[in-house]
Amino acid sequence: MDRYVTGAVIKRLRESKKMTQEDLANKIFVSGKAVSKWETGQGFPDISLLEPLAKALDISVIELFSGDCVENKNKSSNIKKCKFYVCPICGNVIWAIGDAVISCCGLTLPPLEPEEVSGHEIKTVPVEDEFHIYVEHPMTKEHYISFIAAVSDDGVQIAKLYPEGNAEARFKRSRVKDIYAYCNRHGLLK
Ligand SMILES: [Fe+2]
Question: Ligand 1 centroid to 181 CA: how many Å?
Answer without folding.
Answer: 10
